[in-house]
Each structure stands twice: as structure tokens, then as C-alpha cells.
Amino acid sequence: GSWMEFRTGHPRRADCFPRKAAARPPPSPALAPSRRYFNTFSVKMENLTSFVGRADTGMLLVETMTTQPGWRKNAKQLLRSFSDSYPHTNSRGSFENGDNYFHYIIEANVAYLTVCDKSYPKSLAFQFLEAVHATFMKDHGDRIRTYDRPYAAQQGFDMTLDRIRQQYFDPSTPENLKKMEDDIHAIQNIMVSNFQEVLKRGEKLDRVNTLSQDLMYESKRFQKSAKYMNFQLWLKQVGFYAAGGLLFVGVLYWRFFM
Questions:
Q1: Which residues pair with 51 in a beta bridge?
Q2: 129 neighbors 140 (Cβ within 8 angstroms)
Q3: 3-class SS shares of the chain: helix, strand, coil, % to 5
């Protein structure tokens, strides 16, 4: 036998020793995905991230899960701007925010917002919002005025919102292509604004509110000062007549009783 058989008592086998895995060659630079590709892909996976809120109070009622916390903040800012100008807010529109659009519609005192990257078809985004509106009104229309706390409709509508989002998520499906063909002229008159303009308007409104509160405070102080001065003047006038009356009574008392 061999030396191995002499030492172990067993014949040498090829599988007694694990084979060393062959080193893999580094990926080709042309095939290696870049960080920019992953970032773009992750943002597109967030398409149709949506929010539902009351247009009159700016209260957020429902939202989809997102890995972009800044979008939630932006949605709350937009809802606040809607409530500041309600009911004179445009019923539909778009706000450009970096590489994305915030599309919105306002129907029956409820604002529906969705975030899409700029490559997502605008007409399909608004059809998605219309579908969300129709379903939300069907399920919650008679309870909207009773919702007085944030996320009041989250538990009852979040799964429905995700289901509608899945239907509209891929613009290239035959169903969605057909929807866009049938609605090709519906979005021509929708105005696109810059999101930073909304923030500036919000800051101006905050300053106006602060000034109005200061004016109200000064007005109340002036009213209190005026009331105090009038009271002092009244005391002086009453005091003069009261002193004269007391003097007259004193003279009568001294004249007839002393």
C-alpha cells in the first residue's frame, strides 16, 4: 500500500481532503453596478409613495411606507399650505422637488398626494390619485369630518392604498398603457410649481401670523390702558362732585344741627 494507507490503515481517497475553492476574478468595470444605479433604482422603487390628508386642517390621515423620511415632511408642508389657502387652493397640480414630482388632487375636502420620479408618466400618476380618491370616499367618505387626530384612517386604508399602488406601479403593463392612451389630453392644463416656492409662501404666512398675533397683543394692551385711564378720569369727575356734595351736607348739618 501507499504511505497514506500505512499511516491511517485506509486507502487514500480524493475526497478525504477539501478542495480549495478557486478564486473568482474581479467583476469587469463594465458589468459592475455603480452606486448611482442603485440610488436611482431605489428611488424608482419608491414611486407612488402616497399621502392622504384633510385639506382644511392639513392633518395627515394615511400614508404608505417609505424609506424617504424627507418626503413625509414635504407632504406635511404641502398639506399645511393647502389648509392655509383652503378653499381657494387649486384642485390639482404638481410640485417639482429635485428629481421628483409631488402630484396632488383635492376632492371633497381631502387632499391626495403621490411622489414620483420625473420619468413616471404624469397622466398615470393622476389616474392613480383618482382611483385612490374614489376608493377612499367609498370606504371613509361618511367619516372624514370625524377624523380629528393624525393617521386616523391609517389602519383601515393602508392595505387598500398599497393594493391600488401595485396596480399602477409599472407603467409598461398593457392595462396602464391603455389607461394612458385613453387619457392623453387630460393633464395638459395642470400647473407645475416649484416646491421651494411653497416653503417660501409658508414662511411668509408664518411671519404674517406672528405680526398679526403681535398686533392683537398690543391692541389688547392698548384697550386695557384706555379702560384704566377712563376709570381714573371718571374717579376724578365723581370725586369732584362727591367732595362738593359732602361739603354741602356738612354746611347744612352745621347750620341746622349744631
A1: 63, 113
A2: no
A3: 60, 15, 30
Residues in the chain: 258
pTM, two decimal places? 0.60
Residue 183, amino acid:
D
DSSP single-letter state for residue 168:
H
What is the Cβ-side half-sphere exposure of residue 86, based on CA atoms within 13 angstroms?
18
Contacts by residues 70-79 (CB-CB < 8 Å, ≥ 24 positions apart): 71/46, 71/115, 74/102, 74/195, 75/51, 75/102, 75/113, 75/115, 77/198, 77/199, 77/202, 78/102, 78/104, 78/111, 78/113, 78/195, 78/198, 79/51, 79/53, 79/54, 79/55, 79/111, 79/113
List 121's β-bridge partners, or say none.
Answer: none
Please give the chain's pLDDT, 258 residues, in tens: 544 444 445 555 545 555 555 555 554 443 333 344 334 444 477 889 999 999 999 999 999 988 888 899 999 999 999 888 888 888 889 998 888 999 999 999 999 999 999 899 999 999 999 999 999 999 999 999 899 899 999 998 999 999 999 999 999 999 999 888 877 655 555 666 665 665 555 554 455 454 455 556 555 665 666 666 666 666 666 666 666 666 666 666 666 666
**At residue 54, what are phi and psi to the nearest 5 degrees?**
-80, 130
Distances in Å between the alpha carbon of 226 and those of 24, 223, 239?
89, 5, 20
φ, ψ of residue 230 to 5 degrees: the values are -65, -40
- Cβ atoms 93, 192 nearer than 8 A: yes
CA gap 10, 13 in Å, rounded? 9
